[in-house]
């Protein structure tokens, strides 16, 4: 048997009769999260053989549009941060953050 550690993240999706998400739950025991409810999930996975991104975007019927706009903004900011850490390309990360500021301004998210 190998000495490798593993970690698991699970998503539980409750669907209505039309297979539309009604409730979303996620569990990450290593992070202390157990069946935590969420209203939206964006998951991206890199397929290195096909050289393409695979994604799952889900949101419940109860996800308000104003919260979805905030969720997108925060996701874009996080992507800029991740891009900077992954590539050390500060100039492009700053450009991405400039877009995030523009995005927030146009959606009137800045208070």
Average pLDDT for all residues: 95
In N-to-C order, the SSE pattern is EEEEEHH
State the oligomer. single chain
- What is the share of helical residues? 25-40%
Largest sheet: 3 strands, antiparallel
Trace the largest sheet across and list its strands: 1-2-3
Number of strand elements: 5
Q: Helical region count? A: 2
Q: Rg, please?
A: 17 Å
Instruction: Decide which structural class fits the backbone.
Output: alpha+beta
Pick out the low-confidence regions.
none
Domain tally: 2
**Ends distance:** 55 Å
The fraction of residues in strands falls at 25-35%
What coarse outline follows from CA principal-axis ratios?
globular
Q: How would you sum up this structure, described in words?
A:
This is Gliding motility protein GldC. InterPro entries: Motility-assoc_prot_GldC. Pfam families: GldC-like (PF19937). This protein is an alpha+beta fold and 111 residues long. It folds into 2 domains: 60 residues, no CATH class; 48 residues. Strands 1-2-3 form a 3-stranded antiparallel sheet, with no helix packed on it. Strands 4-5 form a two-stranded antiparallel ribbon. The mean pLDDT is 95.
């Amino acid at each position: 048997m190998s000495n490798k550690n593993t970690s698991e993240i699970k998503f539980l999706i409750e669907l209505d009769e039309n297979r539309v998400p009604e409730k979303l739950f996620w569990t990450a025991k290593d992070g202390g999260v157990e069946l935590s409810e969420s209203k939206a999930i964006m998951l991206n996975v890199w397929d290195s053989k096909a050289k393409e991104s695979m994604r799952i975007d889900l949101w419940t019927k109860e996800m308000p549009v104003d919260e979805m706009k905030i969720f997108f903004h925060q996701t874009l900011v996080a992507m800029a941060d991740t891009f900077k850490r992954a590539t050390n390309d500060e100039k492009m990360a700053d450009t991405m953050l400039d877009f995030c500021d523009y995005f927030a301004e146009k959606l009137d998210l800045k208070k």
